Amino acid sequence: MILELKDIKGGYTKNVDILRGVSLSVEKGEALGIIGLNGSGKSTLGKSILNMLPHQSGTIILNGENISGLSTSEIASKGISIMHQGGKVFDNLTVDENLSLAGKASAEFKKLIPLLQEGIGSRMADRLSGGQRHQLALAMALLGSPQLVVLDEPSAGLSPKAVDEMYLILSTVRKELGISIILIEQNISKAITFCDRSLLIAQGQIEQEFKSQDITEIEKIMFNKKDTEL
Question: What is the pLDDT of residue 226?
Fold first, then answer.
């Protein structure tokens, strides 16, 4: 086991828990999906793992070490990185300058990310397409050779063609690098197909685990739960 969360509670403000006792584990080399509706706590969970949103209680264990009290930079140095929702990069920097903030991209690494083979290293990031921005954000998350990467909505805002390309890249990255992945995703079909198993989160709690790829069944459970909550 590479990562374990035990009864994580917390959110954006001290007295309001968005996460209400989340426990999960990730095995080495596993891709774990976190699926759920808007406002369910998916992105909050991803940020809490890296202490970008300090949790109020609970324990986070990485390779047997309690990292709950470490800063985001210290957690990153231990081998966890994150690709933020929307493919966030530094718009006022070039592609190469963005990459240099994360590390040095070897020739072998560049083969994993099509953007890095396009010869546009001097292009400003604000001139990239949505798909290119997501590829750059992914490259930056991977350059530090993390053991585990949190992918926060890697398909958000992309065209169907760009989504397919992104998941093709992710499949290659997973195969070649052998890293563990936590995939936070609203695109259920992509998450279920890509991941070894997926967890449904609702109102800040893990409600159900899926190993099945029956997307219709999963969507029915999700939206029935929404109707119940309403």
Answer: 53
Q: How many other CB atoms sit within 10 Å of the CB of residue 177?
A: 17
Query: What per-residue confidence (pLDDT) applies to 227?
Result: 47
User: What is the pTM (predicted TM-score) of this model?
Assistant: 0.91
pLDDT per residue as tens digits for the range 62-76 = 999 999 989 999 999
Q: Report strand pairing: 205-210 vs 55-62.
A: unpaired
Q: Which 3 state secondary structure label does DSSP give 205?
A: strand
Any idea what DSSP says for residue 3? E
Give CA–CA dist 228/195, Å, rounded.
27
Cα gap 161→24, rounded to integer Å: 32
- Token pair recorded at residue 69: 């009290």
CA–CA gap between residue 106 and residue 228 (Å, rounded) = 51
- What token pair was written down for 3? 């990562």
- Residue 28 CB coordination number (10 Å): 13
